[in-house]
Every structure is written in C-alpha cells, then in structure tokens.
Give the backbone structure.
Amino acid sequence: MDSGYRVKHHEMLDVVIRSYLVRLNGGYPAIVQKFYSSGKADIQPCFKVAYVNPDDGSIETPDPPIVTNVPVLYSISVIGGRISGHVYPLSPGQEVWCQVSQRSLETYLNSGGVVDPADTRMFDLSDSVIIAGIRPDNHPLPDINTSKMLIGFLDGNGLIQIDTSGNVKID
C-alpha cells in the first residue's frame, strides 16, 4: 500500500470516530430554565455541536435542546429512617454542571434498587443529573473564607460560619 492510501484511510477512520464521539455525552455545563419543587429542573446545555448540512455542506450550530425533568444531586442521607441533608432551590439562569449516566436512568428513578434498564439508550442527555455550584469566570463566587465552613448566603446576609475551633457565628 502506498502512504496516500493510509492517510486517506486514517482520515476516514478519524471522521467515523469523531462522528460517534460527538454524540457521546459525558459532563457539560448548563443553565437552569425552570426549577420544580420535586428537586428536578429543566436545563439548557451550554455546548453547541457543529453539524454539516447534507443538502448544501454548510456548517450549522443549533442551540442544544432543553433537557426536562433533570434530577438535582443533593447531599442527603437517611438517618434513623429520616431523610436529612442540604437541599436548596435552583434559580432560572443559574449555571450548573450536568453529568450523563452511562445507561438509562428512567427505570431506576421510577423504582429504585438494582434494576435492569428496559431502555438500551446510552449516554443520552435525557439521563443527566445536575450538580450545582459551577461558576464561569465572568460570574465568580465572592471570595471564600478558607478558614471557616460557610452555610447560607455567601453575600454575608443569612450566613452561618463555623471556624476550626468549633466557634459558630450567625449573621
């Protein structure tokens, strides 16, 4: 084989692999569109994907679809049969991080426990979960005190501060 064939073969393989990878969803930033008291939200993924229009060869970058009813991951536990944890609402416009499950979450979310997913989809945006807290550099968090644990509103109004000695201050 001449090297021209190998280069073309390599380029073709690269195109095929990339066409599959572009459809493989992992983690991505998103913007909350609507929050529900059930602990789920509708979100707009922030990453667009470029597509080649087969009719005219032009490159298109449509907005990603709104993903609905995405569960929020909260820090919760069951203690003595009671649910405890740290839960909070999300606000429209808030930036969040989303992680996509390897398999369909639908059966698990409906029944819990160890499940055999009835749906064979993989890495689909509809199987995302939300992790709150990511902030782009143009919307930074206020400076965080590195010697205290902070619970509450970080602007200082309605804030519980606990230092390393266990002293508690409530503002």
In short: The longest helix spans residues 3-21. The first strand starts at residue 27 and ends at 36.
